[in-house]
Write a structure and sequence with these properties.
With about 300 residues, the protein is of the alpha/beta class. The chain has 10 helices and 14 strands. The radius of gyration is 19 Å and the shape is globular.
Length: about 300
């Protein structure tokens, strides 16, 4: 093995029931001032329990430490790896890209390390990492791989809504004052990832069902295209998931949809009460075929 793909654990690959060769750089999750290693000593299910039943202080995340990234790259070098392609979650929402890039630069005399800012989150990062892995195995150059991922990223759109804004407020995804009034008036912001990779509100709606309708209507035409891959991001709330899937079926006629898990990192930042709707339009990652679709009854 002389080439390998790494991804930050924010991709959620740990929770996807698929076979892959991507190794993960594990971010940290802090609950009640206790540090956990994402995917090692805390799972999505455990995190949901702590957030819903135990935690009385903000849950937050942090990047993998620089020394840990350095050890990981050094171990790969000792195994004879010559080229490493690393995908990270958006540099607009985490310092992971900057930290990993700085460490990678220190290996420039001994390894070829390409650090790629996906400017996206969750399953999109996972799908880009899987695409990179496929192309690495086919001996594409890393610059060509980056160009391919750029094209896929441009074809992707994600909308997200949360029923409970408390985690968004605690983690400063919504300002304290804005969050207070949003909660007071039951406003549910619909969020999207901008072209630059920032999480930005695009609409403020009073009820969560109306937010869901907004998301579905905004993406319905694209979802119905034969050259698209649409999927739902689930935070593990079956009641919300089923409600949303039924609304998709009623408003679009779609009766099958891939349902992918929100990563633990996003759960920590946004809370367990939200969900997302995403679609690749016109240019679809090859890994899309790995995911089973859920029948909407």
């Amino acid at each position: 093995m002389s080439r390998i793909v790494l991804s930050t654990s924010s991709s959620g690959l740990d929770d996807m029931d698929i076979s892959h060769n991507v190794e993960l750089i594990r971010l940290r999750i802090h609950v009640n001032n206790v540090e956990f290693i994402d995917g090692k000593n805390i799972s999505s299910e455990r995190l949901q329990y702590l957030m819903n039943e135990v935690s009385h202080s903000p849950v937050r995340t942090s990047p993998a430490p620089a020394h840990e990234v350095a050890v990981m790259l050094n171990n790969l070098q000792n195994k004879g790896v010559k080229e490493v392609f690393i995908t990270t979650l958006s540099s607009q929402v985490s310092e992971s890209y900057q930290i990993i890039k700085q460490v990678a630069d220190s290996f420039q005399d001994s390894m070829d390390v390409y650090v790629y800012d996906t400017k996206d989150l969750n399953a999109c990062e996972a799908l880009l990492a899987l695409e990179a892995d496929r192309l690495m195995q086919q001996d594409y150059s890393m610059t060509d791989i980056a160009s391919r991922l750029d094209a896929l990223r441009r074809s992707h759109q994600m909308l997200f809504a949360a029923d409970d804004l408390s985690y968004l407020i605690k983690n400063k995804k919504v300002s304290g004052a804005a969050g207070f009034f949003a909660n007071l008036f039951s406003i549910k912001p619909v969020l999207q990832v901008s072209d630059a990779g920032a999480v930005v509100p695009i609409s403020k709606i009073r009820k969560i069902d109306k937010a869901f309708e907004y998301m579905i209507d905004a993406l319905a035409e694209t979802m119905l295209r034969p050259d698209s891959f649409a999927y739902m991001l689930s935070a593990g709330r079956p009641d919300l998931d089923q409600r949303f899937l039924q609304m998709i079926k009623q408003r679009t006629g779609i009766d099958r949809l891939a349902v992918l898990p929100v990563s633990s990192i996003s759960l920590a930042n946004h809370g367990p009460s939200g969900l997302g709707l995403c679609v690749f339009k016109g240019d679809v990652p090859s890994a899309a075929q790995l995911f089973k679709t859920t029948v909407i009854n």
